[in-house]
Design goal:
The complex is a heterodimer of chains A (291) and B (232). In chain A, a hairpin with a 2-residue loop joins strand 2 and strand 3. In chain A, 47% of the residues are buried. Helix content of chain A is 71%, strand content 4%. The radius of gyration of chain A is 19 Å and the shape is globular. Chain A is built from eleven helices and four strands, in the order ααααβββααααβααα. Chain A has a single domain, classed as ABC transporter involved in vitamin B12 uptake, BtuC (Orthogonal Bundle). In chain A, the strands form two sheets. Chain A has a two-stranded antiparallel sheet with strand order 1-4. In chain A, strands 2-3 form a two-stranded antiparallel sheet. The two termini of chain B are 34 Å apart. In chain B, helix 3 packs parallel to helix 6. By secondary structure, chain B is an alpha/beta fold. Classes of the chains: A mainly alpha (291), B alpha/beta (232). Chains A and B meet through helix 6 and helix 7 of A and helix 2 and helix 3 of B.
């Protein structure tokens, strides 16, 4: 019983962290129809930023600063690597995204020398707590609540503000949105800003739990979050969140069983099954071409 | 009000508009008629800033608005009701109207009332997703949405496309009504009969050039026009 609780707790928490990354994938896809392959690496860079900033700044300054810098990074990536390709074939933008991904990984290798970096202790989050006889970190408990709060805030933003309305319009129809006077590029930047911010928060939670960061630390969580986004129906925010929690819980269950080495195999097998059986995922919109 | 000088537009390697000049006088209903592929839509899209012209100038009153970005053009008071309506299907009717006023920061109540008075059907359906409306209602919504930007000039691309004749008549009545209320209209149509009856001034476009112009009712008597566009 205790064992089950501990697995469920870590699964929910892991799922929440994936959810924060998955939202970034799904929002960018919703607007640009682009799989932003660099997103997982932005998540990793956010972790490294905290590591380096914490060497000379107190942690309560360095976390918000990390969020600001990550947002800036996401914004710059979009402006430099994706915006000039706005009217290019989608394949070119995707290749550009892969390029940015490798660039960030290699920069991280250069800066860290390839050595694992230790994420600093975050007071409060890193402390241990015992729940129903299971010992875990506070971050495990905090994550799902924080994720739910952020998702509620995000849906409010999208459904009840002017910029949110513009985001929904641009996601549907670039040209008509322009005719309304919407500046498409600002809306796209906003999407990257939100996605990067959530990835930064995700990195704080994730690396507080798994403390060592290497340049490839963004790759796997990024891919799992991507699978979650596809599973939930890419383009759908609730889909991404639910998909992420399911993936997180499954991963945690498999890791706790005798089959632990297969946990990633399971994730990607799931991706294949979803793509074959229900390509639009749980909540994805059906693509109907109305004449 | 709007003055086009020797406008040339290339589109995908083809010169779609080959140097046209025309004017839209303030307070008028002006129509551009012509067959499919004559360059009518391209002309409107260029004025709206969606397409950059190869050469030529577009003036609104005294101001050169050639190749401004679409949002700048909207803020100058020009709006385009696109071909095929293009309402935002997932947004509610009310949201579609609000997004038409995207650049405005003042109170929208009065304008919403104006649009709802013009189109009472939209008021009944204001909480419905726009995608659930019928074709005619979507056209009303597209017009209402354009009006929410408080335009001086409203351009309309094939408003009658795919609508039943009775609905088309309703739409044209509304166009006249909007014009009476002080909005200048530039209309392109394949339904030449309806357009010529409504328009004070008409231009005929053929393969990228303007070949004829004159008051709408006079052009209706022109033999060549009768043959080519009115099916008589």
């Amino acid at each position: 019983m205790q064992y089950a609780i501990s697995i469920l707790l870590s699964g929910v928490s892991l799922g929440g962290q994936y959810a924060l990354i998955a939202i970034g994938y799904t929002m960018v896809y919703g607007i640009l129809r682009l799989i932003n392959f660099a997103h997982g690496d932005v998540f990793m860079v956010a972790g490294l930023m905290t590591v380096y900033l914490s060497t000379f700044l107190p942690i309560y300054v360095c976390l918000p600063l990390t969020a600001v810098l990550t947002v800036l990074l996401g914004f710059v990536i979009e402006r430099v690597a994706y915006k000039p390709l706005r009217s290019a074939p989608r394949m070119s933008v995707m290749i550009s995204a892969i390029g940015v991904s490798y660039l960030l990984q290699n920069l991280a290798t250069y800066i860290t020398g390839g050595l694992p970096q230790m994420y600093p202790q975050v007071p409060g989050l890193s402390a241990s707590v015992t729940i129903a006889g299971t010992s875990t970190k506070w971050v495990t408990i905090v994550t799902p609540f924080l994720v739910v709060a952020l998702v509620i805030a995000l849906t409010q933003l999208i459904n009840h503000t002017k910029i949110g309305m513009a985001m929904r319009a641009v996601a549907k129809d670039f040209e008509t949105s322009q005719l309304m006077g919407i500046k498409i590029n600002n809306v796209i930047s906003m999407t990257f800003i939100i996605g990067s911010f959530l990835a930064a928060v995700g990195s704080m939670l994730y690396f507080t739990n798994y403390q060592s960061i290497v340049p490839l630390s963004g790759a796997l969580p990024g891919l799992r979050a991507f699978v979650a986004a596809v599973f939930g129906g890419i383009g759908s925010i609730p889909g991404a969140v639910i998909g992420a929690f399911l993936i997180g819980i499954c991963e945690s269950i498999i890791k706790g069983s005798d089959w632990s080495v297969f946990s990633d195999a399971f994730t990607f097998a799931l991706l294949i099954v979803v793509l074959v059986v229900k390509p639009t995922g749980l909540f994805g919109e059906k693509v109907t071409d109305k004449v | 009000m709007l003055k086009i000088d020797d406008l040339k537009v290339s589109y995908g390697g083809i010169e779609a508009v080959k140097g046209i000049s025309f004017e839209v006088p303030e307070g008028e209903i002006v129509t551009l008629i012509g067959a499919n592929g004559a360059g009518k839509s391209t002309t409107l899209r260029t004025i709206a800033g969606l397409v950059k012209p190869a050469s030529g100038r577009i003036h609104l009153q005294a101001e050169d608005i050639t190749a401004l970005s679409p949002d700048r053009i909207v803020s100058k008071g020009i709006t385009l009701v696109p071909e095929g309506r293009h309402v935002f299907p997932d947004l509610t009717v009310l949201e579609n109207l609000k997004i038409g006023a995207y650049l405005r920061h003042d109170d929208l109540e009065e304008d919403l009332k104006w649009v709802y008075d013009l189109f009472p059907r939209l008021k009944e359906r204001s909480w419905q997703a726009a995608g659930t409306l019928s074709g005619g209602e979507q056209q009303m919504l597209a017009v209402g949405r354009a009006l929410m930007s408080r335009p001086k000039l409203m351009m309309m691309d094939e408003p009658s496309l795919g609508l039943a004749p009775i609905v088309v008549k309703g739409i044209f009545d509304i166009i006249k009504e909007i014009n009476h209320q002080g909005v200048t209209i530039l209309l392109i149509e394949q339904n030449a009969n309806m357009a010529l009856q409504t328009a004070g001034l008409a231009y005929v476009m053929e393969t990228g050039r303007i070949t004829l112009s004159g008051p709408g009712r006079e052009l209706m008597k022109n033999e060549a026009i009768k043959k080519a566009y009115l099916g008589k």
